[in-house]
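> @MW can you paste both from yesterday?
MW: sure, first one:
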Amino acid sequence: MKKLIRELIVLGMIGVLTTGAFAQGKGGDKRPPKEKSKVINPDKREPPPKPPPRERPPKDNKKP
């Protein structure tokens, strides 16, 4: 009895796998074509711009 149940389960799994493989169909891809990605290569290496100096508030030299 166990052998019969095992064989039926194996046949069912094989049936599900083959049905899934054929259900996908051929050429069903209806997505729009992708644009080619653009690669930007800098011609010359320039150092990054330096940040402007910070303005510090004047120090208070007052004694309490």
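MW: second:
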Amino acid sequence: MRTARVALLFALLSTQALFMACDKNSSSDSSSEKKEEAAAEHPIWGDLDLAKRLDALQGTWTLKLPAMGLVNYEGARAMMEEMTLQVEGDSATFTAAQGEVVKGKLRVTSPCSLEFAKDGDEGQLRFDFAASGSDLYLGLGGAGTKLGDGFITCENNAFVVYDGETCKYYEASFGPKEGFEPAIEVNCSFAGDTFRYQVPSFMDKTKLNEETLVRSGEVLLSEQLRDDHKLTKK
């Protein structure tokens, strides 16, 4: 994400001039790099290295996922079925319960979600993703993770950021001015390890729905993600 600088002063005629120019340019380059770094920071999670979060997924795992959307099939399938996931770098291979093999690429899209793009397909499948120590969760249901002094939850195209005192809701905007809509403050609270917070209704943005996640170490988990989608290392 950060652009490497290339020295531009090789055409100077004297060694003395070269050293003087390099010394001056060093300060200029440092200032420019800082500006570029600041510009590259995400407006919500700053300079958090999302790609590095894939490190925790390296290896082979068993997990439960719905076959729908991931596997092409006919007839009935179980709502959830045990699969094998092998990850090497950003390459992933899912092997479904009936032996179907699906290959593609993983891309971490937020602190608590990732996308899987099947080879040969244009679309992506979105999964909630949470990692707390050696405990990993990948699937559906909702998740959040530690961010600064608080937490961030990952909704569909939106995020709720809890800074330790208040919560703000950020919704992605689309079209010629992609980015985020102005943040709105929403109610939220912890009761023990239970985190309750509000998000605007998908059908009516003037109405607020209450969501619930449970804290487990460094992450927030829905009951579905916690109970159905924990990964086991093979």
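> thanks! Residues 51-233 form one domain.
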